[in-house]
Design brief:
elongated; alpha+beta; single chain
């Protein structure tokens, strides 16, 4: 398991801060307890309208009451739910509001929940390092001001960040600390044992996993429930640990979060040896990850700390200014008999406020400096990405053969600054090697993987290997230490220009079109996922007078503003027409896709190669 899905972790943290029958550590009146239980149920079922309405009732009832823990816990639930499910910017604003309310009311409980909320939002955004920092800060606040508050939620948050780093010993240590917290609630215990299960499974400790699973099962039997969404995921791991693959698939189908479901099914099918299904679910997993970790979402998360610091500093400055004005207005109303005393007091207060103003202004200036630094860094990154894009373009051939026996042309248009698609060819005497590939994922990681594949392809063709041998060599090299699960689908071909005989290997790639019809071929696995895969080669007896069109799925899966895909049928109909030479054919298809997409945002790279044999 690469990591626990963000939404799953969110549910766990919220469960960790209170069970369905105990919203908080406070003893609540029956009516208020009933409302908090209703809010919990609405959260668990994602009944958004009811959840926000109930949360507002809790906040109204507790804001100015003795139940401050319940108030701030409700605010924390609200901010995290808003960030994850409704509107990220509003979620950030609500987390700001918790901080400001806690500061205005000098509430250490509020500061604890504000810090914990920030850590959770950072974790959801993928900023694990900053999330870890926030959880440690929350622990310090708890130890300093809230000795009766359980530290288990913070330790469980740290379990998640350690799991992301694959530091399984640290996962077990934080889980142990959570379990040792005095008065730990049952849901926290179940969650801690869940993390122990995950750590031991990932360490390959089958017996240790079963021991942890047994402890967890006993707690669930004793206190009721199924351990939430996390529980079903642990049940998937139990079936995998016992190599009960069909049971694992059945349990994986029950997982609600799409990323978890796709990743688990890919892993299960891989263990079963069904590489076709494993590839399908690998692609689904990558698509979900790309949608969550879009560059826009990353940019918002990276700028969050600068925005937060700036907001805090601006509010500090405003507060100091309002306080000073209040003192000046009060001075005019004081009776003459107290003028001397007041002036002395005012002088003291004015001097103190001046110092506070200077400190606030200094913080504000520092925040603006940080924001300016962030802006410069962003501009520098954008500049470097533009340079990377130019370097990537230069890695791909831009001069193509137009001989009496063959006409070849290819083009690649990345959806983002840099892309993961590739193409290449090499002419060695009368042998034409060529390839088209599509790396999983997008952005810089895909571009780096693409560069490595391109370099290795050029090296391997010098050995005059067959296409299936090239695929096998590439796979062996790329699958080694591939912790990120990156892979590339490729069509690798070799044409003897004298005889017209073509040999090829399709490694999980879209089937090309030969004379306007899709080719039927072996369903090989993609390159880079499984080191021991055997690749099958195929052939076409004579390519003379024929047209081959190889492309990536950015073409057939291109979407317009109505979410309608370009589709395979539309592509086939276009290629049954004569558009002229290889370049004219490629450019005509490209124009057709661009016109179809229109004003919609490009979702994937567009790559195509056309080969016309004479």
């Amino acid at each position: 398991m690469k990591k626990i899905a963000r939404v799953l972790f969110l549910i766990i943290l919220l469960l960790a801060t209170g069970a369905s029958h105990h919203w908080a550590g406070e003893q609540l009146p029956p009516k208020l307890q009933s409302i908090t239980d209703e809010a919990y149920r609405a959260y668990s079922t994602r009944d958004t309208e009811n959840f926000f309405e109930t949360i507002q009732r809790i906040k109204t009832a507790t804001e100015f009451s003795e139940y401050q823990e319940t108030y701030y816990r409700a605010c924390s639930y609200e901010a995290i739910y808003m960030f994850e499910y409704v509107d990220r910017q509003k979620g950030v604003e609500l987390s700001h509001a918790i901080y400001h309310h806690a500061k205005e009311n000098k509430s250490n409980i509020g500061m604890y929940f504000a810090t914990f909320t920030l850590g959770t939002i950072r974790e959801q955004s993928g900023n694990m390092g900053l999330a870890e920092k926030s959880f440690h800060q929350a622990l310090k606040l708890k130890e300093q001001y809230l000795t009766d508050e359980s530290a288990a939620p913070c330790y469980l948050g740290l379990c998640e960040t350690a799991l992301h780093r694959k530091d399984y010993e640290e996962v077990k240590e934080y889980a142990r600390k959570a379990l040792e917290e005095p008065g730990i609630i049952p849901m926290n215990q179940i969650t801690a044992w869940s993390y122990k299960c995950l750590a031991r499974y990932n360490e390959g400790d089958s017996l240790g996993f079963e021991e942890a699973y047994k402890e967890r099962a006993q707690l669930i039997a004793e206190f009721g429930g199924q351990g939430g969404l996390f529980g079903e995921l642990i049940n998937v791991y139990q079936a995998k640990n016992r190599k009960q693959w069909q049971l694992a698939l059945q349990r994986a189908d029950k997982l609600i979060h799409q990323q978890n479901k796709c990743a688990q099914k890919a892993s299960i099918y891989e263990h079963m040896g069904d590489l076709k299904q494993a590839l399908y679910w690998q692609k689904q997993t990558r698509a979900v990850i790309d949608s969550i970790q879009s560059s826009e979402a990353r940019a918002q998360t990276n700028e969050f700390d600068a925005e937060l610091t700036l907001t805090y500093a601006e509010n500090d400055a405003k507060e100091m200014k309002l306080a000073k004005n209040h003192v000046m207005l009060t001075a005019g109303a004081v009776i003459a008999a107290l003028v001397i005393a007041f002036l002395a007091f005012y002088g003291y207060r004015s001097n103190k406020h001046t110092k506070h103003m200077k400190a606030a202004n200094s913080k504000l200036q520092a925040a603006y400096d940080q924001l300016e630094e962030t802006t410069k860094a962003k501009e520098r990154i954008e500049s470097e990405l533009r340079i990377a894009r130019e370097i990537q373009k230069r890695m791909l051939p831009h001069v193509f053969p137009r001989r009496r026996d063959v006409d070849l042309y290819a083009m690649m248009t990345p959806a983002k600054e840099v892309g993961g698609d590739l193409y290449g060819y090499a002419l060695i005497d009368d042998l034409l090697y060529f390839c088209v590939g599509d790396v999983s994922g997008k952005g810089v990681p895909a571009a780096l993987f693409m560069a490595e594949v391109t370099r290795m392809f050029r090296t391997l063709v010098d050995g005059r290997l067959q296409p299936e041998a090239i695929a096998s060599r590439l796979n062996h090299a790329l699958a080694e230490d591939n912790d990120q699960g990156m892979f590339v689908t490729m069509f690798i071909g070799l044409i003897n220009l004298k005889s017209g005989h073509m040999e090829y290997c399709n490694a999980g790639h879209n089937p090309p079109l030969l004379d306007g019809e899709y080719m039927k071929m072996e369903a090989n696995a993609p390159i880079g996922l499984w080191p021991e895969v055997n690749f099958a080669g195929e052939e076409v007896a004579d390519m003379h007078g024929r047209t081959l069109f190889v492309y990536t799925d950015g073409i057939n899966e291109a979407e317009n503003i109505h979410k309608e895909q370009f589709g395979e049928d539309r592509l086939r109909e276009l290629l049954q027409k004569d558009w002229g030479d290889a370049r004219q054919t490629s450019e005509s298809i490209h124009r057709a896709v661009e016109e179809f997409v229109g004003d919609a945002e490009p979702s994937d790279d567009l790559t195509k190669m056309c080969i016309k044999m004479r």
